[in-house]
Amino acid sequence: MAEPALSRVLVAGASGYAGALAAVLVDGHPYLELSGVTSRSYTGQRLDELFPHHRVPMVLEELDLDRHTEGVDAAIVAYPHGAAAQTVAALRERGLKVVDLSADFRLRDRATYEEWYVDHTAPELLDGAVYGLPERYRAELRGAELVANPGCFPTAAILALAPLAGHLADVVIDAKTGVSGAGRGATDKTHFVSVTENVTPYGVGRHRHMPEIDQELAAAGATGLVATFTPHLLPLDQGELLSCYATLREPMDVHGAFEAAYAHEPFVELVDRPPGVRDVRGTNLCRLHVHVDPRTHKVFVFAAIDNLWKGTSSQAIQNLNLMLGYEETTGIS
Amino acid sequence: MAEPALSRVLVAGASGYAGALAAVLVDGHPYLELSGVTSRSYTGQRLDELFPHHRVPMVLEELDLDRHTEGVDAAIVAYPHGAAAQTVAALRERGLKVVDLSADFRLRDRATYEEWYVDHTAPELLDGAVYGLPERYRAELRGAELVANPGCFPTAAILALAPLAGHLADVVIDAKTGVSGAGRGATDKTHFVSVTENVTPYGVGRHRHMPEIDQELAAAGATGLVATFTPHLLPLDQGELLSCYATLREPMDVHGAFEAAYAHEPFVELVDRPPGVRDVRGTNLCRLHVHVDPRTHKVFVFAAIDNLWKGTSSQAIQNLNLMLGYEETTGIS
Amino acid sequence: MAEPALSRVLVAGASGYAGALAAVLVDGHPYLELSGVTSRSYTGQRLDELFPHHRVPMVLEELDLDRHTEGVDAAIVAYPHGAAAQTVAALRERGLKVVDLSADFRLRDRATYEEWYVDHTAPELLDGAVYGLPERYRAELRGAELVANPGCFPTAAILALAPLAGHLADVVIDAKTGVSGAGRGATDKTHFVSVTENVTPYGVGRHRHMPEIDQELAAAGATGLVATFTPHLLPLDQGELLSCYATLREPMDVHGAFEAAYAHEPFVELVDRPPGVRDVRGTNLCRLHVHVDPRTHKVFVFAAIDNLWKGTSSQAIQNLNLMLGYEETTGIS
Amino acid sequence: MAEPALSRVLVAGASGYAGALAAVLVDGHPYLELSGVTSRSYTGQRLDELFPHHRVPMVLEELDLDRHTEGVDAAIVAYPHGAAAQTVAALRERGLKVVDLSADFRLRDRATYEEWYVDHTAPELLDGAVYGLPERYRAELRGAELVANPGCFPTAAILALAPLAGHLADVVIDAKTGVSGAGRGATDKTHFVSVTENVTPYGVGRHRHMPEIDQELAAAGATGLVATFTPHLLPLDQGELLSCYATLREPMDVHGAFEAAYAHEPFVELVDRPPGVRDVRGTNLCRLHVHVDPRTHKVFVFAAIDNLWKGTSSQAIQNLNLMLGYEETTGIS
Q1: Does B243 touch chain A (CB under 8 A)?
Q2: Per its UniProt entry, what is the enzyme's top EC class, as one word (chains A, B, C, D) (predicted)?
């Protein structure tokens, strides 16, 4: 078989954890070529100086929409929520396929987006955006031109609950995440002394991933469900564990539903023991452990991912593979 | 006012984390005198060599029931579950007041105990034992002769949920705990490399603190409630956070109920922000944050304690203070 | 014996780790009364909200030199280096005894200070300042009016090496410190993700504690000695370990020298095993382990302190006790 | 160019950290085929169950010398010191090339080995063993049949100091290591609660890597040098930093010596800033930072490696590549 053609990929916003890892993964991908890395705050600095454990000796540049898109096939945009939409629109205008890591194109309903985030600056693109969870939208992702990469919590939550969605009467999602999920910004909350030997709930009752989880559980068949979701900050850097406690409307073959959903998925593993987040660190895997509890008649689903990998950057590569016609697992397994 | 009379207190099983801390707290208490410390495995070793950060220069001895009880008023027994009952019985026969840190006298129903633990070797003492949660059983603890010190998870769970108990239709308790809760035993699970940068659920669907939580929620007014409870092991040594998600049978004045329950409690703090476990480290405090969620109509209660302090050893001192007639907060505030 | 008279103490700069802990220790001291806490950046915020594990319910105010010194006996100033001198001078003018936690009065030689720090704004006070290491300057500290509290690394280094100082031909000091030593400032270097699972040397060849160490080793008898000193940042919050490797000019009774120096010191412990920093966490202790190495003929001295306690704030209280005529160990043992 | 022929490789002792990682690296190597994994204690267990983050679904078997060597070209032996020699001898008798991860063939002098370890059970093999540090013994390693893989500390120490060896008058090596270096054994010392928020020196004056460091510095040209070496246990899992403080006999072009030694080495990087151990985690790299100190006239060399990779298992693959005639960097870059 002939080798696939190469694609050139820009990473815009490569000075954050997610963008930098995306650049590393593009750089190591056999069919992708990293065409450039941009950053507003770290212009002129080398990526491997900013992140000494990454081995990409490329200099961060200020984004020049014309120069950085010439001869480039696709872009991964790693901007903050609200700031991404305009750049995504500009890149789309110049014909690039785009995976957007922000929330700007995840919520299908503009009003919901604007309620939880800010005014939308490119609402005309919402209809054409595909939600980038391949286990749910593989067909739409093949050939898609704009992909909204899911949030890290929704990634794990939807993978954990979609097989039950049509049967859910109630669900509590208790999430535990490492500090890298909060980004590189140095704040009181990310200071080592605040985090070590500590664990704290945050965003109680108002985390922005809530409407995204509800939207995608509804898309998977849930009716009238408002999920309870609370994240907690833990003293670890990468890794995310979601503990989901579901009440079903009626009895069902729970394990059968998970087998049916994931038996052929390359990146979802059903395991017999509760997973730890280290089991999946540095991988594109989601490990799921399902327990049907005889005492309470609830279903417990524990989902472990690496928030920077399957939760963000390696999932972006998985999406790019589908968008560009490569084998889905290339460069991330 | 005259100074209270001194009491002499033995700590049996002082080579574990809980017993050692109990010895330290007795040693620093103005009205208690540490009469001896015993251990089966570390006989002859000094407590401040085994735990260099503790400052009790006393030698661990093999328990001699006669010698170690002569002129002694009370004992704290820090033995493993199942192993404690017989020693407790022997100490009671010799007239000592006893706080038992094990589970052996926590479950009022012998059959339930034997279902979750082992055969009971001193069932005749069950009726006289008082459950050592002062915020619930203060009156009974004054002058009690045998106190079953609560488990660390039940301590936080009952404090978090008792004010709602009569109204609970359903509750999910997601617990996060440090490694000291697993004790000093060196195993694969407590090895640094297994724990660091990790988080793992354990005891899924079968943790022994479940029947204790159900018993005490029923005692507080819950009817027909089987709580969902799942602990998770975190990379920290001391500290325990319980995230409780409660569905109520009917509307109620939630914040009023907590105010009413805890306004005068010296060791329970209602706080406006979600607590971190470091906020209460090395204290006998339980910090509670209550959130009534408008999206889901659930009540969230977050409870933070130090598992070795309020969760075990300083609560034992709180109980001893009540049993021996001292001011409840002496030596632990 | 009559109870000593109370003294009122101001803590200026109480929003940092060192100042906040100083305020907590003053607040808990039987003979000191915390008269006020000030901060430039956190005016109006309560200390126990900023540091939930501290229990001082006092509001941080902007420093008002007249109001905050009225009826006040002493102050602890926890300002950054360079910024402290002027405030110290103003407080001294108003008659307060001052313990300055900054480096501004530690170096006796103005030129050396200005070479390593900035221009000195109160050089007229240098002569009267006493270096606040009680184990070296106890007599001068009794009744002193201005005390320069030592740096955390010099505290441990001088305690580790002073007994050998007159005999030192060469010394290498390899220091390991937790992140709290870097202060509350949120930076790339203090971000949890930068620190966890990492260890990095810093300030190589140019750390500002070097001239302070050399000055005090010379004061203890060293001649012509320039110590090698390199700190390393470790993934822990509090704690500091100095590993000192000394070459002696001639044979001497090493252990005897340490015994002679510290046999009667309340806060220096000579121990048989290498200490860990947890052994002294939250205490004013310095633990020293001395090893005379037969293979290399060097003397190894390992010194463990808590950088925020003996390394800073509890040592400030030790100094205040001496300055105000209280028993030296009051409130910190 | 034709693809190289495959080699079949046995990993004996694959249930420890080092052996398991060696098995993973063999399994992922393009020219090596993992023929089997053995273990005495975990017979019958799958490697990917024992180490869920490793993806090698192979069952651990009790070593059967005949069956496990049939058609096998080479073995990596990951046994404890003292226990390896006999198995190595048996594998050599059956014609396998062997990389031994233990210390059994590292010390050329049998008496020195027996002084620091135990009686040697295969001394006849000592002469033929090559010390497996490719940067020093590349020529001898090509085609070698028995390779003694260096200790993790000596690996970093020799790489840090060999370019200076002929000029060294004195050297202090202060080493910082993560817990994985202590192996999988669950003990008081590896318990999470003992390690977190702590740092402790160990093996003071008597660590077994001392004679290995001295031997190899002498082989590199040092005369009469006894290095000072002290390791410290840190709260991290993988990673090792050596801070070396060297006194030279006479002035020399230090940076030139390092450039000359390592300009063409694929796995040694000279860097401008002090390295952190995370910079090299999960790689076969050694990062060196060299500082010539004008104040003390010493040379500081900081060396960072991953103790399980360049310090052990990936270096074993580097050695195997040389022994079997593959390009040295295959499978580890």
Answers
A1: yes
A2: oxidoreductase
DSSP string, D314-331: HHHHHHHHHHHTS-TTTT
Helix (H) or strand (E) holding D154: helix D152-161
- Residue pair B174/B153 in contact (Cβ under 8 Å)? The answer is no
Is the Cβ of C50 closer than 8 Å to some Cβ of chain A?
no
Q: Please tell me whether residue B41 adopts helix, strand or coil conformation.
A: coil
Tell me: pLDDT of B203 over 70. yes
Residue B24 contacts C where some CB pair is shorter than 8 Å:
no
Tell me the pLDDT band of B23, cut-offs 50, 70 and 90.
Answer: very high
Q: Are the C-beta atoms of residues C60 and C46 closer than 8 Å to each other?
A: yes
Helix axes B209-219, B152-161, angle to 10 degrees: 30
CA A186 from centroid of its chain's CA atoms: 22
D300 forms beta bridges with D245, D291
Question: How many secondary structure helices (H) and strands (E) does chain D include?
Answer: 10, 13
Rounded Cα gap, residues A110 and A131, in angstroms: 15
191-210 in chain D: CB under 8 A from chain B? 191-197
Q: Quick one: DSSP state of residue B69? A: G
Hey, where are the domains in chain A? 7-128, 153-307
- The CA-based angle C219-C203-C83, given to 5 degrees, is 70
Q: Can you read off the two tokens belonging to residue B169?
A: 């239709």
Domains D7-128 and D153-307 share a fold: no
Is A152 a known active-site residue? yes
> Which residues does chain B have within 8 Å of residue C239's beta carbon, measured at their own beta carbons?
none
Mutate which of D17, D46, D53 to disrupt the A interface (most A C-beta within 10 Å)? D53
Q: Do B279 and C197 touch (CB under 8 A)?
A: no
* CATH number, span B7-128: 3.40.50.720
Pick the CATH number of B153-307 from 3.30.1330.100, 2.40.128.110, 3.30.360.10, 3.90.1010.10: 3.30.360.10
Are the beta carbons of B232 and B177 closer than 8 angstroms?
A: yes
Catalytic residue among A152, A158, A254, A286: A152
Residue type, C3: E
Q: Report the residue of chain B nearest A237, measured CA to CA.
A: B197
Inspect the interface and report whether the beta carbons of D191 and B179 lie closer than 8 Å.
Answer: yes
What tokens appear for A323 in the block? 């968008």
Mutate to test the interface with A, among B191, B197, B225, B272 (most CBs of A within 10 A): B197
A-contacting chains (≥3 CB pairs under 8 Å): B, C, D
Helix pair angle (B314-324, B17-28), 10° resolution: 50
Pick C296's closest partner by Cβ from D226, D281, D289.
Answer: D226
User: What is the predicted pLDDT for the residue at A1?
Assistant: 54
CA distance D177 to D45: 29
- Please name the helix (run of DSSP H) or strand (run of DSSP E) that holds residue B233, with its range, or none: strand B228-233
Kindly determine whether residue B179 and residue D195, on different chains, have CB atoms separated by under 8 Å: no
Report the C-alpha gap between A15 and B276 in whole angstroms.
Answer: 30
Contacts of B170 in chain A (CB under 8 A): 170, 247
Copy the structure tokens of residue C308.
Answer: 């925020």
The pLDDT tens digits along chain D (333 residues) read: 578 999 999 999 999 999 999 999 999 999 999 999 999 999 999 999 999 999 999 999 999 999 999 999 999 999 999 999 999 999 999 999 999 999 999 999 999 999 999 999 999 999 999 999 999 999 999 989 999 999 999 999 999 999 999 999 999 999 999 999 999 999 999 999 999 999 999 999 999 999 999 999 999 999 999 999 999 999 999 999 999 999 999 999 999 999 999 999 999 999 999 999 999 999 999 999 999 999 999 999 999 999 999 999 999 999 999 999 999 999 998
